Amino acid sequence: MPSSVMPTSSRPSGPQHPAAVSTVALRKSYGDKTVLDGIDLRIPAGSVFALLGPNGAGKTTVVKILSTLITADGGQAQVAGHDLATDPQAVRAAIGVTGQFSAVDGLITGEENMLLMADLHHLSKREGRRVTAGLLERFDLVDAAKKPAQSYSGGMKRRLDIAMTLVGNPRIIFLDEPTTGLDPRSRHSMWQIVRELVSDGVTVFLTTQYLEEADQLADRIAVLNDGRIAAEGTAEELKRLIPGGHVRLRFSDPDAYRGAASALREVTRDDEALALRIPSDGSQRELRSLLDWLDSVGIEADELTVHTPDLDDVFFALTGGTDQPNQPKEAVR
What we know:
alpha/beta, Alpha-Beta Plaits, six-stranded mixed sheet, four-stranded antiparallel sheet, 11 helices, 34% helix, elongated
């Protein structure tokens, strides 16, 4: 597997949506350790982009650079149409950031946390209370609004954290491992929040080690390894990069099964199940070619299923299997 792979179908072609985030040759080192070694990204507005990678791969460093918390050593970046180096203040005004460690102050109530954030955004008291009330309702925190935030569950704190981020009405939100440590119910609740944000036109930049999370949410996924983007594409494009994909044909008629088995090349037989396994990348072109061939020779399968490697396989293939990605219990296969 080459160190840097991008599916051909994922390369830009034709008219493109405006980029919410774009980087060219972004670099960052700490002493003699290179953390980012030339990162190129283009994230369309109103989409979810997921950055995957092992621990220490540089995911949080990317977020910190793009949110102006630290500066890059080289390269160029634009966020919300503003150059990161020359107009960082405009970038800060357009974004919101939520990390894996909550910024919520546990000693004050959820409502007070929200009003404090409204003050920081220079909203009037009336407007601050209006925005706070709306967000508390949206994130199902009305009943807990008057309680100290330290009494909240992990999922409630994370919802409050994102609600606080939305006080400034950002069009781009960076979520740095937002569901780390949450139980499955809270994680799924966060997924729904992300989907609602995107339906409102917000761009979400998500870093995560939960592979199912990226599969569920992201329009595009990039895998970061050794300071470089090892691959980028949709979840389905990435899965097709890894060997092991196949089409399974199952027959109820033994004669049809034997005829197909003798006619097809590079096929694995399962005589007990009357099933044939044919190597395939699962692409529409390959499936159409297979179906046309079956039709031309008069072979009719009772069932056709497409099997592609999952993101676990992609992760291990692209990162050398050096680090076990976190998997929520219900996602383990």
